[in-house]
Description:
Blueprint: E1 3-8, H1 13-25, E2 30-34, H2 36-42, E3 53-56, E4 59-62, H3 64-74, H4 82-101, H5 109-133, H6 147-160, H7 176-187, H8 189-196
Parallel strand pairs: 1-2
Antiparallel strand pairs: 1-3, 3-4
Helix pairs in contact: 1-3, 1-6, 4-6, 6-7
The structure holds glutathione (GSH).
Amino acid sequence: MSTSLTYFDFDGSRGLECRLALTVAGVPFEDRRLNRAQWMALKPTVPFGALPVLEEDGRVLAQSNAILRYVGATHGLHPSDPWTAARHDALMQSVEDLRHKVPGTGLSDEDKKTQREEFAAGWLTRWATSVSEQIAGPFVEGDALNVVDLKLYTILRAYLAGGYDHIPASLFDAFPAIGALYAAVGAHPAVKAYFDGR
Ligand SMILES: N[C@@H](CCC(=O)N[C@@H](CS)C(=O)NCC(=O)O)C(=O)O
């Protein structure tokens, strides 16, 4: 079987979570990393005109959560029980909500600071509370790592690395379940090997 994952040439966001899912699943894949010119040429040809895109033996799948569910369901990294799977889907969708809701685009520095501080104290704190309540520990489903944990890890990695100005990583100190999930995913042998090899 031939598999490729196409995304931009950086280790973050929707591309990283899909690469990690394939890596943890043990699927050999071509890691296609595009520059801007390559993307502009490819964009009209991919579903929804956005990345990541998974290709498997000539068929194409877009949308990060669909890719994660597909890889997870095929390789034992997404629950087979429909209710439990739907709970994981809800958590993965909440990560997409977070990506869309964080203020930033087109704002002056001053407005960005004000709006991000409000966002951190309000929406983001509510999100972290809700996510924490759904983590059995250390992973969402207890001792079993699933694609949902990789999605949560990837967004947390961006926040904990200080990737969002005016939103301090210390915000997550109040959520030990989130810290424990982040540490457990980072310590997973396949995840660790992935980053050690980069
Ligand atoms: N809902 C989509 C969003 C995809 C998306 O917005 N991808 C961004 C990168 S993370 C992208 O392709 N941006 C470039 C563009 O839209 O031209 C998903 O979850 O995959």
